[in-house]
Amino acid sequence: MMQDLNWAIGGEAGDGIDSTGKIFAQALSRAGRHVFTSKDFASRIRGGYTAYKIRSSTDRVESVVDRLDILVALTQRTIDENLDELHEDSVIIYDGERTEMEDVDIPEEMIGLAVPLRSLAKDAGGTIMQNTVALGAACEVANFPIENLDSALDKKFGAKGEAIVENNKEAARLGQEYVQEEYDYDFEYDVETTDNDYVLLNGDEAIGMGAIAAGCRFYSGYPITPATNVMEYLTGRIEHFGGTVMQAEDELSAINMALGAARAGARSMTATSGPGIDLMTETFGLIAQSETPLVICDVMRSGPSTGMPTKQEQGDLNMTLYGGHGEIPRFVVAPTNVAECFHKTVEAFNFAEKYQTPVFLLADLAMAVTEQTFSPEEFDMDSVEIERGNIVDEDDIEAWTDEKDRFQPHFPTADGISPRAFPGTKGGAHMSTGLEHNALGRRTEDTEIRVEQVDKRNRKVETAQEEEDWSPREFGDEDADTLVISWGSNEGPMREALDFLEEDDVSVRFLSVPYIFPRPDLTEDIESADTVIVVECNETGQFANVLEHDALTRVERINKYNGIRFKADELADDIKAKLGQEVEA
Amino acid sequence: MSSEVRFTDFKSDKQPTWCPGCGDFGTMNGMMKALAETGNSPDDTFVVAGIGCSGKIGTFMHSYAIHGVHGRALPVGTGVKLANPDLEVMVAGGDGDGYSIGVGHFIHAVRRNVDMSYVVMDNRIYGLTKGQASPTSREDFETSTTPEGPQQPPVNPLALALSAGATFIAQSFSTDAQRHAEIVQKAIEHDGFGFVNVFSPCVTFNDVDTYDYFRDSIVDLADEGHDPHDYEAAKEKILDASKEYQGVIYQDEDSVPYSELHGIEGNMSEIPDGAPEDAMDLVREFY
To answer: Can you give the pTM of this predicted structure?
Structure first.
């Protein structure tokens, strides 16, 4: 019996690839199976190769692998693009009646199932359901109970009325029956179901959900791949909690609107990707200098310039860490998997308000567009704590006023954290500015006050370094001589790579670091290991550079920057190669 | 809101650093007077400014205020107002701030129609960088960066506003104190985006658009019997480049401000100590 199933649908953008893939992912999830999805998509609305891939198992899955068991190919290119991942037992479902697929080239040893997707869909009520026919056929090949697909179809089309749901179910049945009747194969797949309840969501959605849970009420943004889903998630949901989403005219406006809302006392956020971060950079200093709590989410994609907008990269670390003129105290938090996107978003809002700083939430495309299953308990809303920091009201404002009864929003406290009065608080009227200012917030060029205020702002970071837990997430063998360090979405493939490595008796300690700044001091961990390898999706090793600087030593690097995230088996091979071990060709 | 608020309550104890005789003194005084007249207090007022001479206003006034980055004051004001509709939000800017670097935001703020007022101190020159052409400088106005004049027609901010669907367009002259304050007050009272372009002469760098020039050429729309609810009449005045008009030029009485249109109410700063009660529903959506 085979537990893993690697399935994909591919065709042209506009063929409904994404929604069909999502339906099948949901069907598997509802059958109590773990799911991990990935997408190949091009930056265009119609045309161009697009694929949605699913890896599914009864065990937790954290990564994609180089293997495809069932492929629904709507175009010849879908087969050609995936030849490397197909194997001799792979099953390819295609529409043999479609003119362009009549002479389809199925590699010799594989099984090609010519299913008349379009005409069966027509029988069920409309050719638009051709992909659903393919899903029915796939259920038959995988020996997967089709009732689970029904349930996913209910969810997908329920709002469109019963007739559409029933037609789709019928379409799936026709696909299933066609394979049963026309192909007398004994497929080797037997996809098991379990009683587990899972939720299926991607990183962008988890960030949006985390924002609502954390009390975010104001979101302003400008659409950009791959961050737009955060905005789409919040739209229509945040209103229920008394908030609003504003689509700004550009990123400059987006971050300034968010800044305005934050100064009015709302928990506020904007999300964008690299090019948007560039435009927002002007305002970073103002946020820090005016001590405004703001969460700025950067869902990284491949750069520079417009780069490869639909591909993975972790190239913006330096940008978020150092971007902006002058020196800007800030936090950079980088979630390491889809569930952590939720938790780290909540944390980001708390950091922002406790320390009155910009907080960069640094996510990446691989995580943002990847759907993954989790137990609902991993998003435990009861555990969400909201810490708003030092907010003063009418009763205690006097303690923070000077001899002329003027509120001092930038009073240089011992921990660097300022008193904060929301507009509307009696006696708290004050000015905020990006100019250097005194305790009142008024402009100054006094050399002593300048130094005092710079020190005060940086003291907030020192306070946070002492008060918060910046530990990395640890996996693998804690006594191993080899230490692998990664950040962001590399955690998943790396965790699975540990299993591959273990099979080959390679013992590895793995630290996944969610905090870029402030960050854990890994000097001792680095010093005590024989080999240290930093894994990241960029060319220059931005995080490796930071760690080398911290620990005053050289580290090994594994860098991937072709636009595709690490795959677990590939990463295991890369690590073995770094350790001087032979890797099977 | 207290009726006892006086306009001097909006004065900061910091003396303005504008050049003696600057039009911005009068512009600011009118803003403070209008705020007091409309029953606002410094503690429930939020003033947003960008960069330039106009940007200093937050320091010279007493209220909640932010001095932001160049050209971005309107987005900041939008965020403030939507997050807390109880606040009286007034955005102050200059012609460079609003019609050059910030012109994109201006157009979109106009069409968004958030309930706030926008007062632009238009001196037709860049003052703080010491005398370069601004978007409203005359075509032949010689400056350090345009020795033969910009040789481009000046921006007509009122026409931009009208074409973007403005619901309130007015113009005033900073030194005509009573009239200016009255016009700003109408902008505050307007349900939506209240835009006032103020002739606020620069006595140091602009020797063309002077107090004398405006005194001689200004035409008060009230004297002309202009009806600000008449769109066609407003359009005619706005496109008439031969005169400098003062008064409310256009007002849409049916204006519905953004918040009302989108059902946004309540102060967003008030949130529970933990996740909202029904937050688990958000998770269940992903089953």
So the answer is: 0.96
Q: CA-CA distance, A271 to A276, in Å (whole number)?
A: 9
CB-nearest partner of B279 from A212, A404, A425: A212
- Is beta strand B88-94 parallel, antiparallel or unpaired with respect to B64-67? unpaired
Distance CA B208, CA A435 (A): 32
- Residue A566 main-chain phi, psi, to 5 deg: -65, 145
**3-state class percentages of chain B: helix first, strand second, coil last, to nearest 5:** 35, 15, 45
Minimal CA separation from B51 to chain A, in Å: 10
Gap from A297 CA to chain B (nearest CA, Å) = 18
What does the pLDDT read at residue B3? 54
Tokens of A216: 């975010």
Q: In B, which residues are within 8 Å of A290 by CB distance?
A: 66
Chain A residues touching B286 at Cβ < 8 A: 199-201, 205
Q: Are A256 and B79 within 8 A, CB to CB? A: yes
Whether the Cβ atoms of residue B244 and residue B122 lie closer than 8 Å to each other: no
Q: Which of B46, B26, B54, B38 is nearest to B178 (CA)?
A: B26
B48-66 burial, b if ≥16 CB within 10 A, otherwise e? bbbbbbbbbbbbbbbbbbb
Instruction: Tell the burial category of A414 from Cβ atoms under 10 Å away from its Cβ (0-12, 13-18, 19+).
Output: exposed
User: How many CA atoms lie less than 13 Å away from A98 in the CB half-sphere?
Assistant: 18
Query: Which pLDDT score is estimated for A186?
Result: 84
- Say how many C-beta atoms besides its own lie within 10 A of residue A150's C-beta: 18
Q: What is the DSSP string of A96-135?
A: TTSGGGTT----TTSEEEE--HHHHHHHHT-GGGHHHHHH
List of chain B residues whose C-beta atoms are within 8 Å of the C-beta of residue A353:
none
Tens of pLDDT, residue by residue over B222-255, are 999 999 999 999 999 999 989 999 999 999 999 9
CA distance B194 to B187: 4
Residue of B nearest to A197 (CA): B287
On the CB side of A341, how many CA atoms lie within 13 Å of its CA? 31
Domains of chain B are 7-286 (3.40.50.970)
Q: For residue A407, give the chain B residue with the closest CA.
A: B64
Report CB contact under 8 Å: B82, A244. Answer: yes
Q: A510 vs chain B: nearest CA distance in angstroms?
A: 30
Which residue carries 């790396």 as its tokens? A494
Give the ipTM of the model, two decimals please: 0.97
Chain length of chain B:
287
Shortest CA gap B74–chain A (Å): 8
> Residue B203 pLDDT more than 50?
yes
Tens digit of each residue's pLDDT (9 = 90 or more) over B111-150: 999 999 999 999 999 999 999 999 999 999 999 999 999 9
> How far is the C-alpha of A118 from the C-alpha of A116, rounded, in Å?
6
Looking at beta carbons, which residues of chain A come within 8 Å of B287? Answer: 29-30, 155, 197-200, 376
Residue A12 has pLDDT above 70, yes or no: yes
pLDDT, tens only, A54-104: 999 999 998 888 889 999 999 999 999 999 999 998 999 999 998 888 889
As to burial, measured by CB atoms within 10 angstroms (0-12 exposed, 13-18 middle, 19+ buried), residue A524 is exposed
| Chain B positions in Cβ-Cβ contact with residue A384 (cut-off 8 Å) | 274-275, 279
Say what angle helices A117-124 and A162-182 make with each other, to 10 degrees. Answer: 140
Q: Kindly report the backbone phi and psi dihedral angles of residue A584, in degrees, each rounded to the nearest multiple of 5, phi listed first.
A: -60, 135
The alpha-helical segments, DSSP class H, found in A397-534 are 447-467, 491-503, 523-528
